[in-house]
């Protein structure tokens, strides 16, 4: 539980928020922010100050669709699959990739795409890297694609985060007073891609770091914008994030990927929200190389598991404990939806650090 020091700046920020008698709803877009929020008890502190802070589409595993999982499952008949651990247990239509591995499919957890390359070099067998993540992890995928190692392929599920936040604002289902923007993503893309959200929808935004004090300060900065009648993008995480972002990483993304229209779990198709591999790299693009294997998946319709409200959690419409399955049918050992699987998922974090809330 987060503890204030007697004369610390954190306590002063809390007191400033508390005395304003606020009634605000703020969304953040990062699983690491959710971990900081719940693990340190900041969610309770903010609630006490009249501020409801909840997670939006900030978990890459959570927003990866059942269709993508099913396509990768189809490829397991032809290649070794390398993926990050959180993706292994994310539910598909009839089970997860962990279930496929239990059936004898060669599916291996890696800590980086370089580990996947090493598997390809060592085994000489076809290896497909299931590339999941936002702009933070996509540059490392782009770097390897440029090298084009033999017998190595990439299935890109990488996504751009600003279109998802725009999608939430456009839906209007959540009356947002402010948005805490992801520090890791913004380290790559900078602050400028977020500006149209404030300009069009009048929502104050702050790019925040990941310490408890970062989040307290970000909320305070949003409150100050509201009081000043402003809606702009501010950088709290200025020790890392620059307005222009990381040029080398952005150049890599532009060279290897193009922005594609793609569906997100919990969303319709979001325009220019996917990072798809460019045509000149077709020979490493698993969606092209194994097109005949995954063709049968394309025309299928997929529905979320009955009773699972993960999609609403991803959109920030409800808290995890408002799902009737949370902590009962759906637990980390028996996850129904991906929000209970990933270490960045709101449900998994709430279950782990919920501090005895009365669910």
Characterization of the model:
There is one protein chain. A hairpin with a 5-residue loop joins strand 10 (257-263) and strand 11. This protein is α/β, with parallel strands linked by helices and 359 residues long. The chain has helices spanning 9-18, 31-39, 42-48, 60-63, 66-75, 85-88, 97-102, 113-123, 138-147, 161-171, 183-189, 195-201, 212-228, 247-256, 286-289, 291-298, 310-314, 346-353, and strands at residues 24-28, 51-55, 80-83, 107-109, 127-133, 152-158, 178-181, 205-207, 233-235, 257-263, 269-277. Among the domains are: 61-160 and 245-298, 3-Layer(aba) Sandwich (Rossmann fold), CATH 3.40.50.11740; 310-353, no CATH class. Helix 2 (31-39) runs parallel beside helix 18, helix 5 packs antiparallel against helix 16 and helix 9 packs across helix 14. 41% of the residues lie in helices and 16% in strands. Strands 2-1-7-8-9 form a five-stranded parallel sheet.
Strand content: 15-25%
**Discrete helix count:** 18
Radius of gyration: 21 Å
Second-tier CATH architecture of the domain at 61-160 and 245-298: 3-Layer(aba) Sandwich
**Helix and strand composition category:** alpha/beta
Distance between the termini: 18 Å
In order across it, which strands form the biggest sheet?
A: 2-1-7-8-9
Task: List how many beta strands DSSP finds.
Answer: 11
CATH class of the domain at 61-160 and 245-298: Alpha Beta
Shape: globular
What is the CATH topology classification name of the domain at 61-160 and 245-298?
A: Rossmann fold
Low-pLDDT ranges: none
Q: Profile the largest sheet.
A: 5 strands, parallel
Q: What sequence of helices (H) and strands (E) makes up the elements? A: HEHHEHHEHHEHEHEHEHHEHEHEEHHHH
Mean pLDDT: 94
Helical content (DSSP H or I, runs of 4+):
40-55%
> CATH H level of the domain at 61-160 and 245-298: which superfamily?
HypD, alpha/beta domain 2
């Amino acid at each position: 539980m987060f503890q204030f020091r007697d004369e610390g700046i954190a306590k002063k920020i809390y007191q400033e928020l508390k005395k304003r008698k606020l009634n605000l709803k703020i969304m953040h877009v990062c699983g690491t922010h959710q971990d900081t929020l719940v693990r340190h008890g900041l969610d309770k502190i903010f609630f006490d100050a009249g501020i409801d802070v909840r997670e939006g589409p900030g978990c890459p595993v959570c927003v990866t669709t059942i269709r993508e999982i099913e396509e990768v499952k189809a490829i397991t008949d032809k290649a070794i699959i390398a993926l990050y651990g959180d993706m292994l247990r994310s539910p598909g239509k009839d089970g997860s990739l962990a279930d496929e591995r239990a059936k004898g499919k060669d599916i291996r957890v890696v800590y980086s795409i370089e580990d996947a390359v090493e598997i390809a070099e060592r085994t000489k067998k076809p290896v497909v890297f299931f590339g999941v993540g936002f702009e933070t992890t996509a540059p490392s995928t782009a770097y390897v694609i440029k090298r084009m190692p033999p017998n190595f392929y990439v299935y890109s599920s990488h996504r751009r985060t600003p279109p998802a936040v725009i999608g939430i604002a456009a839906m209007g289902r959540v009356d947002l007073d402010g948005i805490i923007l992801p520090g890791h993503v913004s380290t790559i893309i900078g602050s400028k891609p977020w500006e149209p959200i404030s300009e069009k929808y009048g929502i104050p935004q702050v790019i925040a770091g990941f310490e408890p004090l970062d989040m307290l300060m970000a909320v305070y900065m949003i409150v100050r914008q509201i009081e000043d009648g402003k809606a702009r993008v501010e950088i709290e995480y200025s020790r890392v994030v620059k307005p222009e972002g990381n040029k080398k990483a952005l150049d890599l993304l532009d060279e290897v990927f193009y922005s594609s229209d793609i569906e997100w779990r919990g969303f319709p198709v979001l325009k220019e929200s996917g990072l798809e591999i460019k045509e000149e790299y077709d020979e490493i693009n698993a969606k092209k190389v194994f097109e005949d294997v995954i063709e049968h998946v394309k025309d299928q319709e997929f529905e979320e598991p009955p009773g699972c409200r993960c999609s609403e959690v991803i959109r920030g419409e409800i808290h995890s404990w408002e799902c009737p399955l949370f902590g009962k049918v759906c637990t980390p050992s028996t996850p129904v939806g991906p929000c209970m699987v990933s270490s960045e998922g709101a449900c998994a974090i709430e279950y782990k650090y919920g501090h005895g809330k009365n669910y």
